[in-house]
Amino acid sequence: MPSVAPKSSIADLVAYKPSRYPQGPERVIRLNLNEGALGPSPKALAAMASVNDKIHHYPPVAASGLNEVIGERHGIDPARIVLGCGSDELIQVLTQAYLEPGDEVIHTQYGFLLFPIATKVAGGVPVSAPDDGFTASVDSILARVTDRTKIVFLANPNNPTATHVPTEEVRRLRAGLPDRVLLVLDAAYAEYVQRNDYTAGIELVEETDNTVMLRTFSKMYGMAGLRLGWAYCPEHIAKVMYAVKPPYGVNYPALAAGIAAVQDLEFQEKSVAHNAAWLPWLQDAFRKLGLDPRPSVTNFFITRFPTEPGKTAAEAREYLAKRAIMVRNMADYGENDFIRISVGKEDENRAVVQGLADFLNGVPA
Protein backbone atom coordinates (compact mmCIF):
# COMPACT_ATOMS: atom_id res chain seq x y z
CA MET A 1 0.00 0.00 0.00
CA PRO A 2 1.27 3.52 -0.77
CA SER A 3 2.20 5.68 2.20
CA VAL A 4 -0.08 8.49 0.97
CA ALA A 5 -3.62 7.69 -0.15
CA PRO A 6 -6.22 9.89 -1.90
CA LYS A 7 -9.43 10.77 -0.11
CA SER A 8 -11.95 7.96 0.02
CA SER A 9 -14.48 9.61 -2.29
CA ILE A 10 -12.15 9.23 -5.29
CA ALA A 11 -10.52 5.92 -4.42
CA ASP A 12 -12.39 4.07 -7.17
CA LEU A 13 -12.06 6.71 -9.89
CA VAL A 14 -10.42 5.66 -13.15
CA ALA A 15 -8.49 8.27 -15.14
CA TYR A 16 -10.13 9.50 -18.32
CA LYS A 17 -8.49 7.85 -21.32
CA PRO A 18 -8.28 10.11 -24.37
CA SER A 19 -8.81 8.52 -27.77
CA ARG A 20 -5.78 6.88 -29.31
CA TYR A 21 -5.12 7.77 -32.92
CA PRO A 22 -3.46 5.71 -35.65
CA GLN A 23 0.26 6.30 -35.98
CA GLY A 24 1.59 7.27 -39.38
CA PRO A 25 1.71 10.06 -41.93
CA GLU A 26 -1.87 9.71 -43.13
CA ARG A 27 -4.60 12.13 -42.21
CA VAL A 28 -6.78 11.07 -39.29
CA ILE A 29 -10.52 11.72 -39.63
CA ARG A 30 -11.76 12.63 -36.14
CA LEU A 31 -15.48 11.88 -35.91
CA ASN A 32 -15.32 10.75 -32.29
CA LEU A 33 -15.19 13.96 -30.23
CA ASN A 34 -18.04 16.14 -31.57
CA GLU A 35 -15.66 18.90 -32.55
CA GLY A 36 -16.85 21.69 -34.84
CA ALA A 37 -16.56 20.35 -38.39
CA LEU A 38 -15.40 23.62 -39.94
CA GLY A 39 -12.87 24.53 -37.28
CA PRO A 40 -12.70 28.06 -35.89
CA SER A 41 -13.67 31.33 -37.51
CA PRO A 42 -10.85 32.85 -39.59
CA LYS A 43 -11.43 36.02 -37.57
CA ALA A 44 -10.80 34.06 -34.37
CA LEU A 45 -7.51 32.75 -35.78
CA ALA A 46 -6.46 36.29 -36.69
CA ALA A 47 -7.38 37.51 -33.23
CA MET A 48 -5.22 34.82 -31.64
CA ALA A 49 -2.25 35.88 -33.75
CA SER A 50 -2.79 39.50 -32.72
CA VAL A 51 -1.92 38.73 -29.09
CA ASN A 52 1.30 36.79 -29.73
CA ASP A 53 3.30 39.65 -28.26
CA LYS A 54 1.24 39.62 -25.07
CA ILE A 55 1.33 36.01 -23.94
CA HIS A 56 4.17 36.68 -21.49
CA HIS A 57 1.56 38.64 -19.50
CA TYR A 58 -1.15 37.12 -17.33
CA PRO A 59 -4.46 37.30 -19.22
CA PRO A 60 -6.89 40.14 -18.38
CA VAL A 61 -9.83 37.79 -17.91
CA ALA A 62 -12.22 40.25 -16.24
CA ALA A 63 -11.13 43.15 -18.45
CA SER A 64 -10.90 41.25 -21.73
CA GLY A 65 -14.30 42.35 -23.04
CA LEU A 66 -15.44 38.78 -23.69
CA ASN A 67 -18.17 38.95 -21.03
CA GLU A 68 -19.52 42.07 -22.71
CA VAL A 69 -19.69 40.62 -26.23
CA ILE A 70 -21.32 37.42 -24.94
CA GLY A 71 -23.80 39.53 -23.00
CA GLU A 72 -24.62 41.62 -26.07
CA ARG A 73 -24.96 38.53 -28.28
CA HIS A 74 -27.44 36.85 -25.92
CA GLY A 75 -29.06 39.87 -24.29
CA ILE A 76 -27.84 38.99 -20.81
CA ASP A 77 -25.98 40.69 -17.95
CA PRO A 78 -22.18 40.44 -18.45
CA ALA A 79 -21.66 40.68 -14.68
CA ARG A 80 -23.39 37.32 -14.27
CA ILE A 81 -21.18 35.54 -16.82
CA VAL A 82 -18.32 33.41 -15.48
CA LEU A 83 -15.57 32.41 -17.92
CA GLY A 84 -13.75 29.14 -17.56
CA CYS A 85 -11.16 26.82 -19.05
CA GLY A 86 -13.88 24.99 -20.94
CA SER A 87 -17.23 24.27 -19.31
CA ASP A 88 -15.46 21.28 -17.71
CA GLU A 89 -13.71 23.63 -15.29
CA LEU A 90 -17.00 25.31 -14.44
CA ILE A 91 -18.63 21.96 -13.63
CA GLN A 92 -15.76 21.22 -11.25
CA VAL A 93 -15.97 24.68 -9.69
CA LEU A 94 -19.70 24.27 -9.00
CA THR A 95 -19.23 20.90 -7.29
CA GLN A 96 -16.29 22.18 -5.23
CA ALA A 97 -18.19 25.29 -4.20
CA TYR A 98 -21.57 23.82 -3.31
CA LEU A 99 -21.04 20.25 -2.10
CA GLU A 100 -20.42 19.20 1.47
CA PRO A 101 -19.11 15.65 2.03
CA GLY A 102 -21.94 13.20 1.45
CA ASP A 103 -24.19 15.59 -0.48
CA GLU A 104 -25.94 13.93 -3.40
CA VAL A 105 -25.80 15.02 -7.04
CA ILE A 106 -28.29 13.68 -9.55
CA HIS A 107 -27.19 13.08 -13.14
CA THR A 108 -28.94 11.18 -15.89
CA GLN A 109 -28.21 7.61 -16.98
CA TYR A 110 -26.59 8.62 -20.28
CA GLY A 111 -25.40 12.03 -19.13
CA PHE A 112 -21.96 13.58 -19.50
CA LEU A 113 -19.41 11.41 -17.67
CA LEU A 114 -17.76 14.40 -16.01
CA PHE A 115 -20.84 15.00 -13.83
CA PRO A 116 -20.31 11.98 -11.54
CA ILE A 117 -16.51 12.35 -11.70
CA ALA A 118 -16.57 15.98 -10.53
CA THR A 119 -19.08 15.02 -7.86
CA LYS A 120 -16.80 12.35 -6.41
CA VAL A 121 -13.74 14.57 -6.52
CA ALA A 122 -15.65 17.15 -4.47
CA GLY A 123 -16.67 14.52 -1.91
CA GLY A 124 -20.26 14.20 -3.09
CA VAL A 125 -22.32 11.13 -3.96
CA PRO A 126 -23.45 10.76 -7.59
CA VAL A 127 -26.98 9.42 -8.11
CA SER A 128 -27.96 8.17 -11.56
CA ALA A 129 -31.52 8.75 -12.79
CA PRO A 130 -32.60 6.24 -15.49
CA ASP A 131 -33.45 7.71 -18.87
CA ASP A 132 -36.63 7.10 -20.82
CA GLY A 133 -35.08 5.29 -23.75
CA PHE A 134 -32.20 7.62 -24.60
CA THR A 135 -33.85 10.80 -23.33
CA ALA A 136 -33.56 12.24 -19.82
CA SER A 137 -36.69 11.73 -17.72
CA VAL A 138 -37.88 14.56 -15.47
CA ASP A 139 -40.00 12.14 -13.45
CA SER A 140 -37.01 9.87 -12.93
CA ILE A 141 -34.88 12.77 -11.71
CA LEU A 142 -37.54 14.06 -9.33
CA ALA A 143 -38.09 10.58 -7.92
CA ARG A 144 -34.46 10.46 -6.78
CA VAL A 145 -34.45 13.73 -4.85
CA THR A 146 -33.71 13.27 -1.14
CA ASP A 147 -32.84 15.51 1.79
CA ARG A 148 -29.19 15.12 0.73
CA THR A 149 -29.70 16.29 -2.88
CA LYS A 150 -27.72 19.47 -3.57
CA ILE A 151 -27.20 19.65 -7.35
CA VAL A 152 -28.96 18.29 -10.43
CA PHE A 153 -26.96 18.19 -13.67
CA LEU A 154 -28.88 18.05 -16.94
CA ALA A 155 -27.02 18.08 -20.26
CA ASN A 156 -29.53 19.50 -22.72
CA PRO A 157 -29.01 18.54 -25.50
CA ASN A 158 -27.44 15.42 -24.12
CA ASN A 159 -24.08 13.91 -24.92
CA PRO A 160 -23.80 11.09 -26.01
CA THR A 161 -27.42 10.41 -27.01
CA ALA A 162 -28.09 13.66 -28.97
CA THR A 163 -31.60 13.99 -27.51
CA HIS A 164 -33.14 17.01 -25.79
CA VAL A 165 -35.64 17.78 -23.04
CA PRO A 166 -38.31 20.29 -24.15
CA THR A 167 -38.43 23.67 -22.46
CA GLU A 168 -41.68 22.99 -20.61
CA GLU A 169 -40.25 19.78 -19.16
CA VAL A 170 -37.16 21.62 -17.96
CA ARG A 171 -39.45 24.16 -16.30
CA ARG A 172 -41.37 21.32 -14.67
CA LEU A 173 -38.09 19.94 -13.37
CA ARG A 174 -37.08 23.27 -11.85
CA ALA A 175 -40.52 23.71 -10.27
CA GLY A 176 -40.39 20.20 -8.81
CA LEU A 177 -36.98 20.59 -7.21
CA PRO A 178 -36.58 22.07 -3.71
CA ASP A 179 -35.27 25.64 -3.72
CA ARG A 180 -32.07 24.47 -2.00
CA VAL A 181 -31.17 22.32 -5.05
CA LEU A 182 -29.00 23.90 -7.73
CA LEU A 183 -30.08 23.01 -11.27
CA VAL A 184 -27.19 23.10 -13.75
CA LEU A 185 -28.16 23.07 -17.43
CA ASP A 186 -25.22 22.10 -19.64
CA ALA A 187 -26.14 23.50 -23.06
CA ALA A 188 -22.88 22.76 -24.90
CA TYR A 189 -24.71 21.94 -28.14
CA ALA A 190 -27.41 24.61 -27.97
CA GLU A 191 -26.25 26.41 -31.12
CA TYR A 192 -27.04 23.37 -33.28
CA VAL A 193 -30.63 22.86 -32.10
CA GLN A 194 -33.30 23.83 -34.62
CA ARG A 195 -36.44 23.05 -32.64
CA ASN A 196 -39.18 25.38 -31.43
CA ASP A 197 -39.61 23.40 -28.20
CA TYR A 198 -36.05 24.01 -26.98
CA THR A 199 -34.31 26.80 -25.11
CA ALA A 200 -30.85 26.68 -23.58
CA GLY A 201 -31.92 27.94 -20.15
CA ILE A 202 -31.30 31.69 -20.14
CA GLU A 203 -34.89 32.39 -19.13
CA LEU A 204 -34.72 30.08 -16.13
CA VAL A 205 -31.52 31.72 -14.95
CA GLU A 206 -33.23 35.10 -15.23
CA GLU A 207 -36.34 33.94 -13.36
CA THR A 208 -34.75 31.97 -10.50
CA ASP A 209 -31.85 32.30 -8.09
CA ASN A 210 -30.88 28.62 -8.17
CA THR A 211 -30.27 27.78 -11.85
CA VAL A 212 -27.03 27.90 -13.85
CA MET A 213 -26.56 27.53 -17.60
CA LEU A 214 -23.25 26.34 -19.07
CA ARG A 215 -22.04 26.99 -22.62
CA THR A 216 -18.86 26.23 -24.55
CA PHE A 217 -16.75 27.38 -27.50
CA SER A 218 -15.67 23.78 -28.18
CA LYS A 219 -18.50 22.74 -30.49
CA MET A 220 -20.15 25.09 -33.01
CA TYR A 221 -17.36 27.67 -32.59
CA GLY A 222 -14.73 25.01 -33.38
CA MET A 223 -12.35 26.06 -30.60
CA ALA A 224 -12.05 22.87 -28.51
CA GLY A 225 -8.25 23.16 -28.35
CA LEU A 226 -8.45 26.58 -26.67
CA ARG A 227 -10.57 25.30 -23.74
CA LEU A 228 -13.04 28.15 -23.35
CA GLY A 229 -16.49 28.01 -21.75
CA TRP A 230 -18.85 30.22 -19.81
CA ALA A 231 -21.60 30.07 -17.25
CA TYR A 232 -24.61 32.33 -16.85
CA CYS A 233 -25.87 32.37 -13.31
CA PRO A 234 -27.47 34.42 -10.55
CA GLU A 235 -25.19 37.14 -9.20
CA HIS A 236 -24.60 35.41 -5.86
CA ILE A 237 -23.49 32.22 -7.63
CA ALA A 238 -21.22 34.13 -10.00
CA LYS A 239 -19.46 35.69 -7.00
CA VAL A 240 -18.94 32.29 -5.41
CA MET A 241 -17.60 30.77 -8.62
CA TYR A 242 -15.11 33.58 -9.15
CA ALA A 243 -13.98 33.19 -5.53
CA VAL A 244 -13.32 29.46 -6.02
CA LYS A 245 -11.85 29.27 -9.53
CA PRO A 246 -8.27 30.23 -10.42
CA PRO A 247 -8.04 33.93 -11.37
CA TYR A 248 -6.20 33.28 -14.65
CA GLY A 249 -8.07 30.18 -15.77
CA VAL A 250 -8.66 31.46 -19.32
CA ASN A 251 -5.62 32.07 -21.52
CA TYR A 252 -4.86 35.17 -23.59
CA PRO A 253 -5.33 33.61 -27.07
CA ALA A 254 -8.65 32.05 -26.02
CA LEU A 255 -10.00 35.39 -24.80
CA ALA A 256 -9.05 37.14 -28.04
CA ALA A 257 -10.40 34.33 -30.21
CA GLY A 258 -13.61 34.16 -28.18
CA ILE A 259 -14.39 37.84 -28.76
CA ALA A 260 -13.84 37.52 -32.50
CA ALA A 261 -15.83 34.27 -32.73
CA VAL A 262 -18.87 35.68 -30.94
CA GLN A 263 -18.91 38.68 -33.25
CA ASP A 264 -18.49 36.62 -36.45
CA LEU A 265 -22.17 35.92 -37.13
CA GLU A 266 -21.51 34.90 -40.73
CA PHE A 267 -19.25 32.06 -39.64
CA GLN A 268 -21.75 30.92 -37.00
CA GLU A 269 -24.50 30.72 -39.62
CA LYS A 270 -22.18 28.78 -41.92
CA SER A 271 -21.37 26.26 -39.20
CA VAL A 272 -25.01 25.70 -38.27
CA ALA A 273 -26.04 25.40 -41.93
CA HIS A 274 -23.28 22.85 -42.58
CA ASN A 275 -24.55 20.70 -39.73
CA ALA A 276 -28.19 21.08 -40.76
CA ALA A 277 -27.31 19.76 -44.22
CA TRP A 278 -24.94 16.92 -43.37
CA LEU A 279 -26.55 15.46 -40.24
CA PRO A 280 -29.64 14.18 -42.12
CA TRP A 281 -27.45 13.16 -45.06
CA LEU A 282 -25.34 10.96 -42.81
CA GLN A 283 -28.32 9.44 -41.02
CA ASP A 284 -30.05 8.66 -44.32
CA ALA A 285 -26.87 7.03 -45.64
CA PHE A 286 -26.63 4.91 -42.49
CA ARG A 287 -30.23 3.75 -42.88
CA LYS A 288 -29.50 2.70 -46.45
CA LEU A 289 -26.68 0.56 -45.06
CA GLY A 290 -29.20 -1.21 -42.80
CA LEU A 291 -28.04 0.53 -39.61
CA ASP A 292 -30.20 2.17 -36.97
CA PRO A 293 -29.23 5.84 -36.46
CA ARG A 294 -31.15 7.53 -33.66
CA PRO A 295 -32.68 11.03 -33.92
CA SER A 296 -30.38 13.94 -33.11
CA VAL A 297 -30.64 17.68 -32.47
CA THR A 298 -26.85 18.10 -32.30
CA ASN A 299 -23.76 17.63 -34.47
CA PHE A 300 -23.53 13.91 -33.71
CA PHE A 301 -25.72 10.84 -33.39
CA ILE A 302 -25.61 7.28 -32.12
CA THR A 303 -26.36 4.24 -34.23
CA ARG A 304 -26.93 0.58 -33.42
CA PHE A 305 -25.00 -2.22 -35.13
CA PRO A 306 -25.94 -5.88 -35.58
CA THR A 307 -24.77 -8.39 -32.99
CA GLU A 308 -23.70 -11.06 -35.45
CA PRO A 309 -19.93 -11.67 -35.66
CA GLY A 310 -18.25 -9.63 -38.36
CA LYS A 311 -20.77 -6.79 -38.17
CA THR A 312 -20.60 -5.60 -34.57
CA ALA A 313 -19.97 -2.06 -33.34
CA ALA A 314 -16.59 -2.99 -31.86
CA GLU A 315 -15.46 -4.58 -35.12
CA ALA A 316 -16.73 -1.57 -37.08
CA ARG A 317 -14.67 0.78 -34.90
CA GLU A 318 -11.56 -1.33 -35.37
CA TYR A 319 -12.13 -1.49 -39.13
CA LEU A 320 -12.58 2.25 -39.45
CA ALA A 321 -9.52 2.92 -37.29
CA LYS A 322 -7.42 0.96 -39.81
CA ARG A 323 -8.58 3.54 -42.35
CA ALA A 324 -7.67 6.36 -39.95
CA ILE A 325 -11.33 7.13 -39.22
CA MET A 326 -12.12 7.52 -35.55
CA VAL A 327 -15.63 7.07 -34.06
CA ARG A 328 -16.68 6.78 -30.42
CA ASN A 329 -17.82 3.69 -28.57
CA MET A 330 -20.64 3.61 -26.01
CA ALA A 331 -19.07 0.99 -23.76
CA ASP A 332 -18.76 3.44 -20.85
CA TYR A 333 -22.56 3.51 -20.78
CA GLY A 334 -23.02 -0.24 -21.19
CA GLU A 335 -24.29 0.11 -24.77
CA ASN A 336 -21.79 -2.06 -26.62
CA ASP A 337 -23.93 -2.33 -29.76
CA PHE A 338 -23.77 1.42 -30.44
CA ILE A 339 -21.22 3.87 -31.72
CA ARG A 340 -21.36 7.67 -31.74
CA ILE A 341 -20.41 9.59 -34.87
CA SER A 342 -19.83 13.33 -35.26
CA VAL A 343 -20.66 15.33 -38.37
CA GLY A 344 -17.46 16.19 -40.23
CA LYS A 345 -16.51 17.95 -43.43
CA GLU A 346 -18.03 16.66 -46.67
CA ASP A 347 -15.11 14.40 -47.57
CA GLU A 348 -14.98 13.02 -44.02
CA ASN A 349 -18.69 12.24 -44.02
CA ARG A 350 -18.42 10.47 -47.35
CA ALA A 351 -15.35 8.57 -46.16
CA VAL A 352 -17.06 7.16 -43.06
CA VAL A 353 -20.11 6.08 -45.08
CA GLN A 354 -17.91 4.36 -47.67
CA GLY A 355 -15.86 2.78 -44.90
CA LEU A 356 -18.93 1.32 -43.21
CA ALA A 357 -20.31 0.12 -46.53
CA ASP A 358 -17.06 -1.74 -47.18
CA PHE A 359 -17.04 -3.13 -43.62
CA LEU A 360 -20.57 -4.46 -43.86
CA ASN A 361 -19.83 -5.96 -47.29
CA GLY A 362 -16.71 -7.74 -46.07
CA VAL A 363 -14.16 -5.67 -48.00
CA PRO A 364 -10.70 -5.89 -46.35
CA ALA A 365 -9.65 -2.72 -44.56
Q: Tell me what portion of residues adopts beta-strand conformation.
A: 5-15%
Task: Tell me the count of domains.
Answer: 2
What is the topology, as strand order, of the major beta sheet?
A: 2-8-7-6-5-3-4
Secondary-structure element string: EHHEHEHEHEHEHEEHHHEEHEEEH
What is the total tally of β strands?
A: 13
Explained architecture:
The protein has 365 residues and is an alpha/beta fold. It folds into two domains: 127 residues, Alpha-Beta Complex (Aspartate Aminotransferase, domain 1), CATH 3.90.1150.10; 223 residues, 3-Layer(aba) Sandwich (Aspartate Aminotransferase, domain 2), CATH 3.40.640. 36% of the residues lie in helices and 15% in strands. It contains twelve helices and 13 strands. A seven-stranded mixed sheet has the order 2-8-7-6-5-3-4, with helices on both faces. It has a four-stranded antiparallel sheet with strand order 9-10-13-12. The chain has a two-stranded parallel sheet with strand order 1-11. Helix 6 links the parallel strand 5 and strand 6. The longest helix has 24 residues. It is globular.
Compact overview of the structure:
This protein is an alpha/beta fold and 365 residues long.
